[in-house]
Amino acid sequence: MTLKILCFYVFLLSFILKVSAQKSENIDNYVYIKDSLTKEPIPYAKVVINDTLGGLADSLGRFKFLALNEIKKVEFSSPGYTEKILVNPSILQFDLLLRPLEFNLKDIVIKPKNSVELTLGAVVDKGWGRGFWFREGYQVALYIPSNALRDTGLINEIQIYIEPGGCIQAPFRLKVYRANESVEGPSSTELLHKSVIVKPNASGWVKVRFQEQVLLLPPKGLFVAVEWLPLSENLPCKKTTSISEIQGPWLGMTNTINVPRTWTNAFASGWKLLQAPKEMKNVIPNARIRVIVSY
Q1: Best CA proximity match to 74, nearest among 49, 98, 95
Q2: For the chain, which terminal residue's Cβ has fewer other Cβ atoms within 10 angstroms, N or C?
Q3: What are the pLDDT digits (tens) for 123-141?
């Protein structure tokens, strides 16, 4: 009789442990965000929870949810894909598929032989010895107005200055937004048709040329943004300050632009115009970003 009772308790204990493990597994499951056509992972997809929280998937398209109890809505998105929204998810799928957007190809732009290249943005090649250094999901964007004396130009190249220090070889995402008179700061219209991940080899000017997509300078100009991405395990460099943890590349700053044109976005908190601290009198900090345009 005692042996039967003992066996019963052993069985009951193993059952409880199994159920507990299943619950823990459901809580800690990764969601794998993939292309619905190719089934390939979508690196660094954006995940917004309840309109305010969230983060970015890793380089393998994985995002880890810690709990489902308080999740009312989850939004999954990535440049070049249709956004997917889940409402009151009771369980999150192992594979979350995003459908690629379809774009109409623009007319081919043929540059005349006598075309002129101009540099817009941080034109003066002079740094400030300071930089922007944030954590994943943060964006810093520089507003670059169009040239009022010329017609719309063709963007050949975007250049980002990465300061020494930080994780020089850590990837970041390049984003380009249309400037709109009715929207203060970057609009919601992204001009790049796909996610552009940049992996610097060294500090200095990092140059991104456009060959697959025709990118025209909008009449009101554009915003060029750097988005910080999650670090991989082999790039564990982080720095903890009194405010928060920062990581990734160190975006250069310049004080050669005489008006504030730099905007920041702390993940899903919205865009804000960067203001210099009170102790920095007569200084206007801006991101060291520029574009090369053909007219």
Answers
A1: 49
A2: N
A3: 988 877 777 777 888 999 9
